[in-house]
Amino acid sequence: MGNDLEYLKGCMRPEQYEKLAALNNSKLNEFIADSVQLCTPDDVYLCDGSKNEYDTIMAGMVNEGLATDLKARENCFHFRSDPSDVARVEGRTYIACENESDAGPTNNWIYPDKLKGTMRDLYSGCMKGRTLYVIPFSMGPIGSPISKIGFEITDSGYVVCNMHIMTRVGDKVLEALGQGDFVPCLHSVGKPLAEGESDNGMWPCAPVEKKYISHFTEEQKIWSFGSGYGGNALLGKKCLALRIASVMAKKEGWMAEHMLILRLTNPEGKKFHIAAAFPSACGKTNLAMLQSTVEGWKVECVGDDIAWMKMDDNGQLRAINPESGFFGVAPGTNSKTNPMAVKSCEKNSIFTNCVVTDDSDVWWEDGDGECKHGIDWKGREWTPESGEKGAHPNARFTAPAAQCPNVCPDWEDPAGVPIDIFIFGGRRSELVPLVTEAMDWDHGVYMGATAASEKTAAALDSGVAIRRDPFAMLPFCAYHMADYWQHWFDMGDKLGENAPKIFYVNWFQKNEKGKFIWPGFGENSRVLKWMCERVDGKAGAYDTAIGKMPKKEDLDLNGIDLTDEEMDKILSVDTEGWKKELPIVREFFETMGDKLPDRMVAQVDRLEQRLKS
Ligand code: PEP
Ligand code: NA
Ligand code: MN
């Protein structure tokens, strides 16, 4: 252990080494020393989280041609990835634990020692020609009892700068850590540089068969190799705050969920808090930053992707957003669909795989304004006549949450916000009505477990047209899915009458012409208002086979431009269609094997009975 410090003394800047020596956290020293020895970088750098550090690293990447300084936006930069490195790679994402049955049927399982052997070979010498950055980060406000500290070691400056925005980074984290525990996260783009070699204006990565996004769920550590893309490389986000945290939460009796968090305030000033889970590319970020179209109802954003929730001393479930930024999908984001996101990324933001316009701004499909000519995400000249999209469909903006004009003033309160409502949903062009309220907690858990959506661009390999995505956690639950469902039942038992009400929504039904029926975006506030009034016992609902539903007159539709037939279509239950879902759901449940909770089977049995009667 003393040896680790001694070793680090020989390869670090003295003032940075002194910080580690003063801290004397042996697990940290060992993690850094081992990583340096294994990856053999040219330089080792401990991040302090300062603006100067961000500016210096960013300027270095601009100099190397890896980033474009966008003259039209204050302190904003654009990056292009390797064309193969544009999204999460679920087929190369691994859960390593002793027993395969603990990972369950929805994860790629590998035996930990085997995976370590393979990855050690890959890591060996992988940072040659590069700097090894050590990033101390906190998920959640620094020092909050619900927060978790991680250390990401990476050879990517892009990762360092994105982590500055997405998490709390630097000296403050070292102070909060002391001798305490943390989640070690090792990341490399997997492309050592030969003498004199450079990156050629694109971020480097390894070929797909060498990419590994690995989670050691028992040791609670993360090893990522071969990709520079957000969800694969910013290890605080999906890897720590969802996958590793899902395992911690199960063990410790809390919840780590793929959910946005928002506050809705009614005209009387009463506050409601909603946590909502949707699969990727269903407008989670748009809903999180919604502009209410209902007179007197105000929406404020707490988070757009991840919720950590614990019961407080009064038995109330409280949620924090463990992140400090948004890593949002750019295409489709404009002043109509999400004005708050547009404002959030006006300055101090990073853009990835967009079009860089001739006036040194970024542009993307279905964004604001036009682009007549620019350089596309692959670095080629682009015009609207090019016949290909200028921005990649999964192009991203990374923006500080504090820049969101309607962020909750207390979004960083370590105590979190009390959750009144859970929403599940997906993108379904048929069958699933605008909104349904669960009859009780167990029925709501069934709704979450059977959530399904049509395809997304956020994963490279998500496959089939309609994908079951339970709780929007299919790619993120790092243990047996059926145990996770049981955890939801258990949480309901613990919460009792404090349990949030559960709803299911679908904004995406289409008419015969293939056009969306419900206008969506800001108008979704009408549905949220009904939910809050249900919590307050003020709005009507009637029982259907699939849950409680509003009649037209129960919703505030003032000024909504839909015909009665259209409203009837999205508020009706297609009994025959739902019957056809039953065998699909049963088949899906069977894939869970013995661990499938009886309470879940009871739900599908009851639904079948209700549909028959
Ligand atoms: C990601 O891929 O890094 C990410 C944030 O994914 P998603 O938008 O699917 O949540
Ligand atoms: Na700029
Ligand atoms: Mn997400």
TrEMBL record:
One of its GO terms (biological process) is response to lipid. Binds 1 Mn(2+) ion per subunit. The active site is at C282. The gene is pckG. It is found in: Cytoplasm. It catalyses: oxaloacetate + GTP = phosphoenolpyruvate + GDP + CO2. GO terms for cellular component: cytosol. Its main location: cytoplasm. It comes from Sedimentisphaera cyanobacteriorum. GTP binds at A281, C282, G283, K284, T285, N286, R396, R427, F521, G522, E523, N524. Signal peptide: none annotated. InterPro entries: PEP_carboxykin_GTP_CS (IPR018091), PEP_carboxykinase_C (IPR013035), PEP_carboxykinase_GTP (IPR008209), PEP_carboxykinase_GTP_C (IPR035077), PEP_carboxykinase_GTP_N (IPR035078), PEP_carboxykinase_N (IPR008210). Monomer. Keywords: Cytoplasm, Decarboxylase, Gluconeogenesis, GTP-binding, Kinase, Lyase, Manganese, Metal-binding, Nucleotide-binding, Pyruvate, Transferase. This is Phosphoenolpyruvate carboxykinase [GTP]. Belongs to the phosphoenolpyruvate carboxykinase [GTP] family. Its cofactor is Mn(2+). Substrate binds at R88, Y229, G230, G231, S280, N394, A395, R396. Catalyzes the conversion of oxaloacetate (OAA) to phosphoenolpyruvate (PEP), the rate-limiting step in the metabolic pathway that produces glucose from lactate and other precursors derived from the citric acid cycle. Pathway: Carbohydrate biosynthesis; gluconeogenesis. The lineage of its organism: Bacteria, Pseudomonadati, Planctomycetota, Phycisphaerae, Sedimentisphaerales. Residues 30-250 form the Phosphoenolpyruvate carboxykinase GTP-utilising N-terminal domain.
